[in-house]
Amino acid sequence: MNHKVLDILEKNPALHEREAIIVALSGGADSVCLLHLMLSIREQLGMAVMACHLNHHIRGEEADRDENFVRSLCERLGVPLFVKDVDVISKAKELGISLELCGREERYAFFSFLAEEHHAWVATAHTLSDSMETAIFHLARGTGLRGLCGIPLQRGDILRPLLSFTRRQVEEYCRQHSLSYVTDSTNLSDDYTRNYIRHHVIPALYKIHPGFEKNFGKTQRLLQQDEAFLEDAARKAAEDAALEDISPSGGRYFRAAELANLPEALRGRAIRLILLEFDASCSGTQLELIEKILKPGGTVELSRHLYCRSQGGKFWVHRFLPPTPEISVPVLPGTYPIGDGKQLRLELINREKLENLKKFHQKVLKNTLDYDRISLTARIRMRKPGDRIRLAGRGITKTLKKLFAEAGIPAESRDRIPLLADDKKVLWVYGFGCDETVRVSEKTRRILWIEIEET
After folding, report:
1. 346 contacts 333 by C-beta, under 8 angstroms
2. What is d(CA 442, CA 445) in angstroms, rounded to the nearest whole number?
3. 3-state class of 97 per DSSP?
4. Tell me: the pLDDT tens digits for 298-313?
5. What is the pairing mode between strands 48-55 and 20-24?
């Protein structure tokens, strides 16, 4: 096992970018085996080995017993140990989530902190048996290819060096090396679904074929290869469908029809990757709804403050927006905050600078005006009912309401688009350009350049 674990770790090209490996040590057979293995190969790795333990206090005295065992083991082996106490029962009640979910979130938050604090990897003792149980659990509930892939070898800061070994092999290793460990009493109960799978489903599969566990491992590796290929293809498809425009919520717009026409194997994956830009996810039901609105248009609520929208040929993710900011900015050179984490910069430029700007800003002409033709009453503000503009070069006057609707801008975002207007008419609208009467011409002496910046 030592040589195989060493080989698995050294195949990771990023392994030596960090200085240490911290073993997540529960005190059970799997984690004790992992710690012993890591200590046996640390010289070949050239990395420090440490350990961490989270006492969640769910099992009362037994949880304290586990902590004491871990402390004693690490002291005997000379391994630095990090321990954190969390009252998971109280925290789960406070958050309104299950004990299992709360414990998992606390555990991985602890791992993430330690990884960053010590520039280290955190190694967990998940085995092939755990990965198999996870896949069967997902299969029973209904899942796609990713769910059948089981537990990944690496995810972020987490490494899982024992994924090639069964629980039986781990326990045999502990026996051969006379390693003592503690047993979680809840692992013996069938009240938990995973325990039921472990105690009843997997033994039944062994009866069908004695080599079930080993063969399942091969199957998972093949599935993981397919999943990685499809994920890469979906990522490329999402990038190909992306537009340059940025939505009011800060995310990108995507061509809805291009997403809708993707093969089914890629479409859902591409949508999930787009949601990741907002650190968002969706259920299977939500994904089906999102796919249905791509062509006809519509909205799907992801969470209380996050939505997917398809409209005017564009698909995007947007957040619930707070009330429209009230702004009134004088048309004088300077930088002015306009809300939503943005600021407006007004600058007077000459023709030489205008020509230079054209090289780097594709839409600079939309945001330049003849400063001498702007009225003293002009202000930067948001839209008002009845606002209209005769955009330069179009030869037609339109209301902003119609202009925004034709551009596919959602109703809740239209009142957040800054514009320049005097007491008679609108002179400029961000993203659309200026009115015919203030466009830059050969006779223009002073040019006003307007730019929106993130603060």
Report:
1. yes
2. 8
3. coil
4. 888 887 678 888 888 9
5. parallel
Q: Are 407 and 312 in contact (CB under 8 A)?
A: yes
CB atoms within 10 A of CB 250: 14
Helices of type H across 177-280? 193-196, 202-208, 212-241, 256-260, 264-276
> What is the four-CA torsion angle of 24, 26, 29, 31, rounded to 10 degrees?
0
C-alpha R_g of the chain: 30
- Closest Cα to residue 202, out of 125, 127, 126, 136? 136
Q: Is residue 286 classed exposed, middle or buried when 0-12, 13-18 and 19+ CB atoms within 10 A define those classes?
A: middle
DSSP-derived secondary structure for 268-322:
HHHHHHHHHTTT----HHHHHHHHHHTTT-EEEEEETTEEEEEETTEEEEEEPPP
Long-range contacts of 407-410 (CB under 8 A, 24+ apart): 407/312, 407/431, 407/432, 408/311, 408/312, 408/313, 408/314, 409/248, 410/248, 410/309, 410/311, 410/318
Distance CA 125, CA 15 (A): 17
Distance CA 318, CA 329 (A): 27
Task: Compute the distance between CA of residue 397 and CA of residue 419 in angstroms, rounded to an integer.
Answer: 16
Q: What is the pLDDT of residues 7-30, one digit of tens each?
A: 999 998 899 999 999 999 999 999
Counting every residue written for the chain, the total comes to 455
Structure-derived torsion over alpha carbons of residues 67, 72, 77, 80, reported in degrees to the nearest 10: 50
Judge whether 349 and 340 are in contact, CB under 8 Å.
no
Cα separation values, 52 from 21, 46, 83, 122, 156, Å: 10, 20, 6, 9, 18
Q: Over the stretch 107-128, which tens digit does the pLDDT of each residue have? A: 989 999 999 999 999 999 999 9
Query: What does the pLDDT average to over 56-62?
Result: 84
Sign of CA dihedral 241, 246, 252, 256: negative
Report d(CA 139, CA 429) in Å as an integer: 53
Q: Which two tokens stand for residue 74?
A: 């690490």
Cβ 262 vs Cβ 272: under 8 Å: no
* Angular region, 140: left φ>0, alpha ψ -120 to 50, beta rest: alpha
From 287, 150, 280, select the one nearest 224 (Cα to Cα). Answer: 150
Whole-angstrom Cα distance, residue 201 to residue 132?
A: 11
